[in-house]
Amino acid sequence: METPSEENQDQWQDKRGCFECCIKCLGGVPYASLVATILCFSGVALFCGCGHVALTGTVTILETHFSKVTSDHAMLTEIIQLMQYVIYGIASFFFLYGIILLAEGFYTTSAVKELHSEFKTTICGRCISGMFVFLTYVLGVAWLGVFGFSAVPVFLFYNMWSTCAAMKFPMTNLTNIDSICVDVRQYGIIPWNATPGKACGSTLGDICNTNEFYLSYHLYIVACAGAGATVIALLIYMMATTYNFAVLKFKSREDCCTKF
Predict the structure, then answer these.
(1) CB–CB of 104/132 below 8 Å?
(2) Is the full-model pTM beyond 0.85?
């Protein structure tokens, strides 16, 4: 029969073994891929959600104040609808791609290899890892373009907002307020024959005070920030997948060198 001291010692050893097991399991988590996945999901959600609503608000502003003839902005409306469908595809793709990269990080991290000493690399596994490296680099470059493109509507709305704000300063009293205008036709959004095509004076001030303008402007800013967060997430993915691929290559060399 065990004495109380022996029972306490057995319990302490069990707790120590459980603690060491937990530490090893936590060591097998690919934290870089996990952070990148969270950041990627957040960035894509902000970009897709806010961008979708902002595009709808932009159409409303154009139809109400700048292009009252349907044929003048019909092509722009179709392009915006197409972009909204593309947003659905982007959200679905990155949801699946983020999960795949996270799973790939779990199976290729060096800590997992230490846990499973019988882990072996295969040519197929290295090819898949190399494919993820290439695809992540391509997506990173593509999202740099998306980030730059998402800054364009922010710039346009900022110019419009700053013009409205300038009319509120006393210095603008030196100039006729009605001569201060914003012409969206010069940006190529709508054709030059669109009517009225521009807004001036108090009409422009009223547009800037509408809920559609206020909401769309801030949503474009958030969407641009989401695109930037996605770029950062893809950069982290690049480093993680490149490291994982290098580890797989090193493991394959180790397997070859240890064969007799």
Answers:
(1) yes
(2) no
